[in-house]
Amino acid sequence: MRLAFLPAQGEAAQDAARALRARYGDTPPDEAEVLVALGGDGAMLETQHRVLGRNIPVYGMNCGSVGFLMNEFRLDRLPERVAGAQASVLHPLRMEVVGADGRAHVALAINEVSLLRETRQAAKIRILVDGRERVAELICDGALVSTPAGSTAYNLSAHGPIIPLGANLLALTPISAFRPRRWRGALLPADAHVRFEVLEAEKRPVAAVADYVEVREVLSVDVREDRGVSLTLLFDPDRGLSERIIAEQFTV
């Protein structure tokens, strides 16, 4: 099996990569059958962005802190573990932004697309779903749309729902909503088209973020799932992503 090891910058991940390369060799990423990401969840997301559009399977091992998307690090029997791993196929979100300067920007997000206020002024955002106005004016720190894989990340910290894989749903979650204060967000079909329109954009500037891509001073943001792009994550049978997402709902 041709494996390529892609470590994060941390010392633990770099040491792990050296040990694994000494035992199993190392293949250039463009020639590998499987990429092995070493680090935390950030390393997994960075690796997935590196192979967007190519759909090379990625097997992660935790050498970082959280590691929700990672398997346990072990040096032994790695080819056997990879061969017996379960695959989870994900689709990213496509973010299309129009900035205050009139320029258009496009980016993909594996976890979430988020809108965030840039100054002390609360943001004012209009929200439409499939062309129908659902929130005329959300006064808030921001809002986000999350995939099931990202629902346990920023979305959960913002008190959004955890979504099992295969549910064909997206989470639309406000961030520190001031008005309407009691609105907690919504669950939407995976094929929904969410549009955010920034109100009073000059007075209340808003940034849009798709994983690692940030666009500042935006006027509108369109978000939808991109079914034309697939991502394959590999997990040990006892650490499947679906099971982990379900188990997270019972964590206290």
What does this 3D model show about the protein?
By secondary structure, the chain is of the alpha+beta class. It has 2 domains: 3-90 and 230-248, 3-Layer(aba) Sandwich (Rossmann fold), CATH 3.40.50.10330; 93-225, Tumour Suppressor Smad4, CATH 2.60.200. 17% of the residues lie in helices and 39% in strands. The chain has 5 helices and 17 strands. A hairpin with a 4-residue loop joins strand 5 (93-99) and strand 6. The longest helix is centred in the first third of the chain and has 14 residues, at 11-24. The radius of gyration is 19 Å and the shape is elongated. The model has no long low-confidence stretch (mean pLDDT 93).
Portion in helices: 10-25%
CATH class of the largest domain: Mainly Beta
Radius of gyration: 19 Å
β-strand amount: 35-45%
Helix count from the secondary structure assignment: 5
Largest beta-sheet details: 6 strands, antiparallel
Got a strand count? 17
Estimate the mean pLDDT confidence. Answer: 93
CATH superfamily of the largest domain: Probable inorganic polyphosphate/atp-NAD kinase, domain 2
The strand line-up of the biggest sheet is: 6-5-16-13-8-9
